[in-house]
Amino acid sequence: MKAPIGQRLQGVDVLRGLAILFVLMNHINMRLRFAKVPYTEGLPDQLVTSLVWNGQRGVQISFAVSGFLITATSLRRWGSLPLVRPGGFYLMRFARIAPLLLLLLGVLTALHLAHVEHFVISEKTGGLPRALLAALTFHVNILEARRGYLPGNWDILWSLSVEEMFYLFFPVVARLLGRGKLFIVMLLGFVALGPFARTVLTQGNETWKEYSYLGGMDAIALGCLTAPLVSRLRFSRTGLWTVCTSGVVLLVFSLCFSLQGEAWGLERTGLDMTVVAVGTCMVIAAVAQSNWRGPRIISPFLRLGERSYEVYLTHMFVVFGVFQLFERAGKPMWAVPALFIGVIVAAGLLGEVVARFYSEPLNQLIRQRWRDRNTAQGPGLEAERADVAARDRDQR
To answer: At residue 127, does pLDDT exceed 80?
Structure first.
């Protein structure tokens, strides 16, 4: 069964909500560690790891989801990968990514120039001009691997660098190779290179181990491979149950038993993140065909997933702001749970406000102008224009 046109896949939003939740938990945990708050003392190591050290796995989940959604959207809009129009593809990505990214960079620039704590870029990393160049040309990951970490609000842009570098070449490669099997071979090549990129190819650089292009593109490639698979194959009820259960088991193992996986050598070989991506894609395949609908009680979590891009780009403002209140209160141990809850709720609300009143209106405005321009070029584009209009509520 396919989800109706324009209807969101709630199972995918659950995965995105899970991903951004792990990122939030990890970044709150980092502030607590920097402040030397011993809030994890006496807790089992695996419990602590599962709750607050799964940020990188959360990003890997989001990469796989992104690969699926971009490829599925391209298939719906243009019918097949060889028919993808690079101009239209880039404009859609610009409409979704650029408005909030440019606003964020403007705010961060102002905060740097005002010498606000936690927002000043050191000369060691190249200063403000170098950071802006890296952000706008999608190589923040390279800059940090070579010169050290940027402030928190800049550092999160490393994942955007990986993701957008992949999509910079996606439409061109899809048009050239999408008609045959070479496109699939190329994606499988990315999947195979992922573990090596996280181990051998890092050459001992711990930052590059997590931030490298190839180290994240295996998950994106797996997501891309999942989209045509779902559109061509129809699983039986038993098949859906098997695929979904297997995916959930892989994710639960990766997220909740990571220390056991480490003991088995998964992290040493770079396969730990591959397992996360494979589990994510199996769940995606199942929920995409079953059109799973969640209970009403998880609506806030689904909304967190739906606004994951806005939450991701803005959440560090909340982390720094709420943590400052925590420090002014004397860093009481009893307030640590409230700190986590407060940041998660506030970050979700900020992401909702930004999406509803800024990024989504601009997204729609840019797309509408693109459709109007195509309409003026003649009736030959009417079918594509109608298809684009029907599917404008993309999930990514």
So the answer is: yes
Domain of residue 279 covers 10-390
> Does residue 389 register a pLDDT over 60?
no
Distance, in Å, from the CA atom of 58 to the CA atom of 242, rounded to the nearest integer, reads 23
65 domain residue, yes or no: yes
Q: Does residue 1 fall inside a structural domain? A: no
Q: For residue range 144-164, list pLDDT tens digits in order.
A: 999 999 999 999 999 999 999
46 in a structural domain:
yes
pLDDT greater than 90 at residue 373: no
Distances (CA, A) of 119 to 109, 159, 279: 9, 19, 36
Q: Give, rounded to a whole angstrom, the gap between the first and last alpha carbons of the chain.
A: 22
In a domain, 396, yes or no: no
Indicate the length of the chain as a whole number. Answer: 396
Residue 5 confidence (pLDDT) above 60: no
Average model confidence (pLDDT) across the chain: 92
Q: How many CB atoms lie within 10 A of CB 3?
A: 18
Count how many domains the chain has.
Answer: 1
